[in-house]
Amino acid sequence: MTDVVRWGILGTGKIARAFANALKDTPNAVLAGVGSRGLESAKTFTDEFGGTAYGSYEALAQAGDIDLVYVGTPHPAHVDNVRLALNAGKGVLCEKPFTMNRSEAEELVQLARSKRLFLMEAMWTRFMPALAEVRRVVDSGEIGKVTQVIADLGFKADFGHEHRVFNPVLGGGALLDLGIYPLSIAVALLGPVASVAAQAEIGPTGVDEQTGFVLRHVNGGMSVCSCSLRARLPSELTIAGEKGHVRMNTMFHRAQTVTVARADGISRTVPTPFLGNGYVHEAIEAQRCWQAGLIESPGMTHEDTLALMGVMDEVRRQIGVHYEADNQQGEKP
């Protein structure tokens, strides 16, 4: 049993349930505990998924039989929740977006580094088989030098304005909820961002309901990304080069096939199935890093997270979206 990693889940919402399901398919993982703001909610969760129920986040963080904590609470709570777990000596996998802004992210990264504790943003797309296949094709030179990525992600959010995705108090908006996916994968494929230009449509609650942004990358090339809470977008990603392109097919963040189309007319589609519900791959990586004594993953480094948060800060500045966390951190979006 020495190889078993004991997980604690902080939060009991939809994303926490998805992660709990993923742990069932993750080798050497066990759900040891679940923390909620009330014991009843935690017990309901553990009745279904197992583990010990804790009636507060503090109690979960202090539990002695937990190695890694998965933070699956609403965006604005991440900074306090991750800080709590790190201060209790736990490694942390925190759901995206990592925090509300770069300033909060810097605080958490500094804390993890000072305590030599593992900390990673739960950007599951970075560890999916589809992205690995895209990178393999690109590295092979089959499509030539890559110069552009086009990616979108969106759906029609048929919710009331009080729902999390429209509520600025809960970090609502298309950018933080959806836009981070195309942004993250564009950076993973083309490298750091040199500049960004953004446009958005702002809804009645003050959050962005549709946002588009063009990135120019430091090492050359550009990416065109969009996200929407108003439209069912194709949600595909294409990376193009001089000799052809590679497409991560429908719902690129969970793509099960990748299509390579060459300029000479030859094309093929490659199966890229994933384990469980897809979150399994990030859980495996977090366990690997934690067991190896690493404080970050080479597939989703601290600098990656800080850079992404910085780009989103700039996008929000350009489109005029402001959150309470910006005031608390002295930001000026």
What overall form do the CA principal axes indicate? globular
Low-pLDDT parts are none
The CATH C-level name of the largest domain is Alpha Beta
Strand content: 25-35%
CATH architecture of the largest domain: 2-Layer Sandwich
CATH superfamily of the largest domain: Dihydrodipicolinate Reductase, domain 2
- Count up the domains: 2
Which structural class should the secondary elements be placed in? alpha/beta
Biggest β-sheet: strands ordered side by side in the sheet: 8-9-10-7-11-12-13-14
| H/E element order | EHEHEHEHEHEHEHEEEEEEEHHH
Ends apart, CA distance between termini: 49 Å
CATH fold name of the largest domain, please?
Dihydrodipicolinate Reductase, domain 2
Quaternary state of this entry equals single chain
Please tell me the overall pLDDT: 96
Question: Biggest sheet, open or closed, and with what strands and sense?
Answer: 8 strands, mixed
Helix content: 25-40%
Extended strand count: 14
What is the overall number of helices?
Answer: 10
Cα radius of gyration in angstroms:
20 Å
